[in-house]
Amino acid sequence: MGQHLCICARNTITIEDKRYFFIQKLEEGGFSYVDLVEGVHDGRFYALKRILCHDREGRQEAQTEVEMHRLFNHPNVLSLAGHTFVDRGGKSEAWLLLPYIRKGSLWSVLEKLRDKGASMPEGQILHIFQGMCAGLKTLHDKGYAHRDIKPTNILLDEDETPILMDLGSMNKARIEVRGSREAMTIQDWASQRCTISYRAPELFNVESYCIIDERTDIWSLGCVLYSMMMLEGPYDLVFQKGDSVALAVQNPIVIPQPCKYSQGLQTLLSSIMVPNPQERPDINWVLEQIQNLNKPERPDEATAVV
Description:
Mean pLDDT: 91
CATH architecture of the largest domain: Orthogonal Bundle
CATH topology of the largest domain: Transferase(Phosphotransferase), domain 1
């Protein structure tokens, strides 16, 4: 891999022997920055994610994120166009070159709807949710879990195809916990890497002897489905008020009534958001239910007279 960097007079950078113009800053987080760049060779826009690696562990985590991107080639999982590690002023940065999705995140779409006092049509919810589940299925099928599914980690392209992003919290789907020390380690990890209001109940109080698996993602999926229906996450308010999310997630989800969405969609949501992971369905079951909901009603059934 071309691991060299060149910052020249016209603010160009080089990644894997290709040059890119710096256009503007897009966003800034605690550990990473995202810039908009343009490929000199193809004229296309890219999002350049720069991860600050404070130590060897940080560098390893960034390398893992690169490897996770490389594992998957799926329309609903964000691809990686290139990467490099850069040493600047004694500090190391990982640079991940990603496709630039102009429309932004699912969360930004939900915020606009809320501001307008509008809601998302059921057909649109099912379309987006089906794509999210298809992306997640490809992760689960390879034995991995995302661990931080939330509306800000889902991008929507021009035709509203959802794309799962931020693979930095991903790890092996199945984690066997043997003893209280391991349980505490996983609990601490989850509190840092899995967003609190979308975090599965079993990650708040990890039992000393248990198996954590990919069904943590199913819970988070349910929270995202709820947010598309209600334009806010089910535990956003609990968190904002300073109440205990850990306590709130122990109870079955309550869907505010009256609800404008079909009974089928409400039932799907209730089936996903089950506090006990052993009773939670897998991704294949969820996809099957979405397909059933997407089937048009047969004319003879719709007009049948009892």
